[in-house]
Specification:
The protein has 369 residues and is an alpha/beta fold. Helices cover 55% and strands 11% of the residues.
């Protein structure tokens, strides 16, 4: 008699089967050294990760795992920003190697890691481009994105980086208009490569921040509207994403060998303690997108998560929801600009905190010599 064993998929595995990539919004040396990241890959269908200055600030400040490496860097005469990028590249190249089989299996669609240029450069086009090219060359990994903010000054750097063949994670996007500007910067870089007979297969993702919308309006709108604006904005952007992918301009690029720039949901950890801790994961399930989750959100989704309905390609009721916020006094376009500016300032603060932690540790180690 034949017996069959059926394995039940957990929620992250099910979401992955629906066509969405699950990336971890975290990186620490302990995650790598203790095998935890590999467990997330094996058990929770994690297929990539993202990093930012805040993540590295917490990782280095709250652990001794980097202390030996910092001592080694000091012996080489490294300090400050140069020392940090050595540490970050060591972590992220290890992670990139871990995800390399996924990168190969998916023909470069998945299996990516991301490293951000210094946020002090958010409004400096030329230096951002130089830093992006240098960091990508130093990493020497095909599956490493360089994160460049989608600010007005960042857009030319995004276009030039793509033209130069540097894969880009466009970050700090909040609105449909900001997303379109970033997507067009990417496409211009691709079209220029096509015109110059260069390979147009340069990958990119566009990272849209979700939860900060709801944090910004909580207490300023009727309570029944809480935790709805971020999801409504995401649905509006997803509709535009689908429209761009089917436009004749984009399809001409695809026909020449380009690949689509994927949409990535960022800032998907729930900030409201009253709301579900998997609110944004459940609401943002959509094929050919990425959801990069904080570690706590990933664990919560694995523990008690369930997938919701697939996001509607036409945006569903997003416009009606946004209209309710408009009537409540929220100026959505102005708020999008404010959130992008505040996001850039927040990353600068985290960067300065990170440099302070590194300087503190390096000074302490110097006194021990």
């Amino acid at each position: 008699m034949w017996t069959f064993e059926f394995k039940t998929m957990n929620a992250p595995q099910h979401l992955h089967q629906l066509g969405q990539s699950l990336w971890l919004d975290n990186i620490t040396r302990d995650l790598l050294d203790q095998g935890t990241l590999q467990e997330y890959v094996d058990d929770l269908s994690v297929t990539g990760l993202t990093s930012n200055p805040t993540i590295f600030d917490h990782a280095i400040k709250n652990s001794t795992a980097y202390d030996f490496a910092i001592r080694e860097e000091l012996a080489k005469g490294r300090s400050g920003e140069e020392l940090f990028f050595d540490l970050a590249l060591e972590d992220l190249t290890r992670a990139a190697d871990l995800f390399r089989p996924i990168f190969i299996q998916t023909n470069g669609v998945d299996g990516w890691v991301s490293l951000e240029v210094s946020p002090l450069l958010a409004y400096d086009t030329d230096t951002t481009l130089e830093a992006a090219q240098e960091l990508h060359a130093r990493a020497d990994r095909p599956n490493l994105f360089i994160k460049i903010p989608g600010t007005k000054e960042g857009l030319p750097a995004i276009e030039e980086a793509i033209y130069a063949g540097v894969p880009v994670n466009v970050t700090l996007l909040f609105s449909r208009e900001q997303y379109i500007a970033a997507a067009e910067a990417y496409l211009r870089g691709i079209e220029r490569r096509i015109e110059d007979d260069l390979n147009p297969d340069v990958a990119s993702v566009a990272s849209v921040f979700i939860s900060r919308w709801d944090s910004a309006v909580t207490g300023k709108v009727p309570v029944e509207l809480n935790n709805q604006l971020g999801i409504a904005m995401a649905n509006r952007i997803y509709r535009t994403y689908r429209e761009l992918l089917t436009s004749s301009r984009w399809q001409r690029a695809f026909n020449a060998g380009a690949r689509p720039q994927r949409l990535l949901w960022a800032s998907t950890g729930t900030k409201d303690p009253i709301a579900s801790d998997i609110l944004y994961v459940k609401a943002l399930a959509a094929p050919f997108t990425v959801n990069t989750m904080p570690e706590a959100t990933l664990k919560a989704f694995a523990d008690h998560g369930e997938t919701g309905p697939i996001m509607p390609g036409d945006g569903g009721t997003c416009e009606q929801t946004i209209e309710k916020f408009t009537k409540a006094g929220v100026k959505v376009d102005a708020l999008a600009g404010q959130l992008q500016t505040e996001g850039a300032k927040s990353f600068v603060k985290s960067w300065n905190d990170l440099m302070a932690v590194i300087n503190f540790k390096t000074n302490a180690f110097k006194q021990l010599v």
